[in-house]
Specification:
The chain is mostly helical and about 300 residues long. The chain has 2 domains: about 90 residues, DNA polymerase, domain 1 (Orthogonal Bundle); about 170 residues, Orthogonal Bundle (hpI Integrase, Chain A). Helix content is about 50%, strand content about 5%. It has 14 helices and 3 strands. It has a 3-stranded antiparallel sheet with strand order 1-2-3. β2 and β3 form a beta hairpin. The longest helix is centred in the N-terminal third of the chain and has 20 residues. The radius of gyration is 22 Å and the shape is globular. The termini are far apart.
Length: about 300
C-alpha cells in the first residue's frame, strides 16, 4: 500500500487543496519519514510512519527548531502530520491517531473557494442531458450542493439510505458516524430521474446493487471520476475558479450561513464534530459584509465607511 499517493488523492479531492499546498504537505511527510528512518535513497519506510509515536513527533519538532526552521514552516509541518495521521485513522490504516496530543500552532483560517448560486446553475446548465451519464451527473451535483456531502459520502450513498417520503437521506460520515440530512425536492427529482432513466437499465456488478451512483459498467464511481467531471463542467461553464467536488460542500454551508441559517444546524448537516470547524463559514468576505451594511443600515450612505 502506497500511503503518500493515497494521501495526495485525499488532499486534492476531499480537502480541495491547491497543488502547491499538496506538494508542501507531502514534502513534510517525506522529511518526517526520513527523520524516522534515515536512508541514502530517502525511501519512504511506511511501517515506520504507521508505528510513529507522540515522542517521535516531539523529537521531530525539536529537530526542526534546532535546524532554525522558520516558525511558519514548523507550524505547517505539524499541520501536515496531523492531517496525514487523521487520514490514516479515517482509512483504518492505523487504529489510534498518535498526533491527537500534538499541539498545533494557532494560525489564521481562510474561507475556501465558494461558488455563487449563479455559477452552480451555470455548471448544471453545462451538463449534456442527452448523454447516458447526463442525468446521473446532474443528480450528483444536485445532491452534493443540496445536501453538503463529502465526495466519499456521495460515491458510497446507497438506495437504502434514501428516505424521500420523509425528505431525508442517511449519511455514513467520518468515523462511521451516521447523520440525517434533509434533501429538497429538486435534488430528489434529479435522483429519481437518474434512477428511472439510467440506473435501472444497468447490469450491476456483484455487490453494487444498493449503490446509488454507478458508472455505465454497473460499478461504483471513484473520487477521481467525480473530480474530473466537476473540472470539465466548470470549464464548459466558463468558471475560472479552482474548484473540486468539495467546493459544492463549501458552497452549501456558505449559502446557508449567508441566508441566516443557525450555525448549530449547519454543523449537524455537515457532520462536523466540533462547531469551531463550522465557524469558518461565518468569516464572510468584505464585499458581502459591505453589501449587507449598505442594504440594512439606515445611516450607510455611500461606498466608503469611515470609523473614527
Amino acid at each position: 500500500m502506497l500511503l503518500l499517493p493515497l494521501f495526495q488523492s485525499y488532499l486534492r479531492l476531499e480537502k480541495s487543496l491547491s497543488s502547491k499546498t499538496v506538494a508542501a504537505y507531502l514534502s513534510d511527510i517525506k522529511i518526517f519519514a526520513n527523520f524516522l528512518s534515515p536512508n541514502e535513497e530517502k525511501k519512504i519506510n511506511e511501517e515506520a510512519l504507521k508505528n510513529a509515536s507522540l515522542l517521535d513527533f516531539q523529537k521531530f519538532s525539536q529537530y526542526l527548531y534546532q535546524e532554525n526552521t522558520k516558525t511558519t514552516t514548523q507550524a505547517r509541518a505539524v499541520s501536515s502530520l496531523k492531517a496525514f495521521y487523521r487520514f490514516l485513522q479515517y482509512e483504518k490504516i492505523i487504529e489510534n491517531n498518535p498526533t491527537e496530543l500534538l499541539e498545533a500552532p494557532k494560525i489564521g483560517r481562510t474561507l475556501p473557494e465558494v461558488l455563487s448560486v449563479q455559477e452552480i446553475e451555470s455548471i448544471l446548465a453545462a451538463i449534456d442531458l442527452s448523454s447516458k451519464e447526463g442525468h446521473r451527473n446532474k443528480a450528483m451535483i444536485e445532491v452534493m450542493y443540496g445536501c453538503g456531502l463529502r465526495v466519499s459520502e456521495l460515491i458510497n450513498l446507497k438506495l437504502s439510505q434514501l428516505f424521500f417520503n420523509e425528505n431525508f437521506i442517511k449519511i455514513i460520515g467520518k468515523g462511521d458516524k451516521e447523520r440525517l440530512v434533509p434533501i429538497g425536492t429538486i435534488a430528489q427529482n434529479a435522483v429519481l430521474h437518474y434512477i428511472e432513466g439510467f440506473r435501472n437499465k444497468l447490469k450491476f456488478k456483484k455487490g453494487m446493487e444498493d449503490i446509488l451512483f454507478l458508472n455505465r459498467r454497473g460499478s461504483k464511481l471513484t473520487r477521481e471520476m467525480i473530480f474530473i467531471m466537476v473540472k470539465e463542467l466548470a470549464q464548459l461553464a466558463g468558471i475560472e475558479k479552482s474548484i473540486s467536488p468539495h467546493t459544492f460542500r463549501h458552497s452549501f454551508a456558505t449559502h446557508l450561513i449567508e441566508g441566516g441559517a443557525d450555525l448549530r444546524a449547519v454543523q449537524e448537516m455537515l457532520g462536523h464534530t466540533s462547531i469551531t470547524t463550522t465557524e469558518i463559514y461565518t468569516h464572510l468576505d468584505t464585499d458581502y459584509i459591505r453589501s449587507a451594511i449598505a442594504q440594512f443600515h439606515p445611516r450607510y450612505g455611500g461606498d466608503s465607511l469611515f470609523i473614527y
